[in-house]
Amino acid sequence: MATLRFFSKMEVQQRKIKICVIGAGAAGLCAVRHLATNLIFEVTAYEQTNDVGGTWVYKEQVGLDENDLPIHSSMYQNLRTNLPAKIMNFSDYIVMEGREPSCVSHQEVLKYLKDYAQHFDVHRHIHFNTKVEHVQFISSDSYDRDKWSVQVRKLKTNEIELCYFDAIMVCNGHYFEPYMPTITGIESFPGLILHSHAYRKPDQFSGKTVLILGAASSGIDIGIDLSDQAVRVYLSHNHDRLTSSLPSNMIQVAGVESIHETRFYLKDGTTIDAIDVFLFCTGYKYSFPFLDKNCGIQVDSNYVTPLYKHFINIEHPSMCIVGIPTAVVPFPMFHMQVQFFLALLQNRITLPTKSVMIEDSTLKTPKKRHAHKLMDQQWDYNDSLAIAGGFNRLPLFYKLGYKAWSIQRSMNLLHYKDSKFIISEDGQNVELVIPK
Questions:
Q1: Measured between alpha carbons, how far is residue 270 from residues 1, 243, 258, 278, 432 in Å?
Q2: How many CA atoms lie within 13 A of 159 on its CB side?
Q3: Less packed terminus of the chain by CB within 10 Å, N or C?
Q4: Tell me: the pLDDT tens digits for 196-213?
């Protein structure tokens, strides 16, 4: 078993465990909600904006916010969830219905998060307009036990504070630093180049020919969103062709090989001319600029190491990073990860040996950027956290709803969000009824 030691029963009785939560988006709110209800924890959360909600806070402007920091949110005006709202709920606060249509607006999700924060009285623990600038591990050679120093800057006064904590929960989100692959000749393109992070409204694409690179959720959704305004939308990707119906002016093509002015050379040898807008829907980079090197966290092509169960810092297990796994139902997973980490801090869980944890963290996919992609594995993952931590598993309808959604989405990309989401009274069956 690991020699790493957390807090004994006597220590827990004698002193509060000071926890720092970085970020007040969905993951940060979930962390504070669980910490605040346990009297052994003293929780302090830092949020660099002036509100809760993280990426769900829609801001029409792009570039810099009121604090001269890069806009965090990637919301666009017409965005609706690409998951049924019912399975997006935290399992201890199921109030977002989304029965018909099953997928709701970003405004409804933000309202849900604000209601969640109010319901569990988390605001009193959050310091707004406060940016975490540096987190450093301090070994027990200097103190009675391992600690973390956290330097923050109050954005309204520019005042710097240095605080010390027993544990760190990194909840800074992962949809704010765009990933844009290098493409030969892009500097010769005279048109508009942007990433989905800066997409807001379809109006600005009126009369334009748009090439979208990437056909994951954002590429498909944004392509459909702007197809009413654009003359033509090319959906460029290297995956199997989508079989669902698409707007009549939305055409699937191969990935982009190179560019010469307004001519795009594709990977299947074909070319496309007269492109006005090149829109990257190529995802985001995991970014933790505030973590000192001695925290031990490294990111290589979005493969974050060394993490046990995709979120516990193996080098210093009193730090976790919530929300790393992709292709998951996020809020319920946050709920499970947070409870596991709290059980760990309370010594209700004993970690395996470091070698076992390192093996758990090794790359198990052909590409590093897919290292944390769980998809159907997410349910076993969530269950493993619940079993080890001694808390409730997620209700079955989450898994059933996700499975039904996955099938229906691929069949009807234009209308699946308007489906009716039906859960049987016993919670053992779920049905999505999609309008014709």
A1: 58, 21, 11, 17, 39
A2: 6
A3: C
A4: 999 999 999 999 999 999
